[in-house]
Structure to design on (133 residues):
């Protein structure tokens, strides 16, 4: 009887682990900061390495455009790429030009960035993407 209980317990634990592996969603944690560049008046571009629980994502970096007094904790990245060395130029007021030499997973080129006083500013981003495998 004892062996039967142990076998059933082991089977239940195995089933629970498989179900957890299948149904637990993936998530991303931000690691070390790779870019902190002021752009415009009162704004900065922040880049972080990202650690994902999804193995096929590989090594990705998240880039944020935020107010100088804000943090990236509540911000959404406008760019997710494999290139940690993006080149950024401010071409005009509230306009950025970015050169990326790597895989781009996500790019949002029309941003509304919230300031500390509650107002928002519209930013436009143009990108030149050179991805060679």
């Amino acid at each position: 009887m004892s062996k039967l209980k142990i076998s059933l317990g082991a089977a239940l634990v195995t089933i629970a682990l498989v179900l957890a592996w299948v149904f637990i969603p993936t998530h991303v944690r931000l690691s070390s900061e790779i870019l902190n560049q002021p752009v415009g008046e009162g704004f900065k571009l922040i880049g972080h390495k990202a650690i994902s629980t999804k193995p096929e994502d590989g090594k990705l970096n998240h880039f944020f455009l935020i107010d100088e007094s804000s943090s990236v904790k509540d911000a959404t990245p406008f760019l997710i790429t494999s290139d940690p060395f993006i080149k950024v130029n401010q071409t005009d007021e509230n306009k950025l030009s970015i050169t990326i030499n790597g895989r781009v997973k996500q790019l949002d080129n029309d941003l509304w960035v919230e300031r500390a006083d509650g107002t928002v500013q519209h930013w436009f981003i143009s990108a030149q993407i050179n991805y060679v495998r």
About this structure: The first helix runs from residue 2 to 23. The beta strands are 28-39, 43-52, 60-67, 79-81, 87-92, 95-100, 104-107, 110-114, 120-129. The CA atoms of residues 88 and 98 lie 5 Å apart.
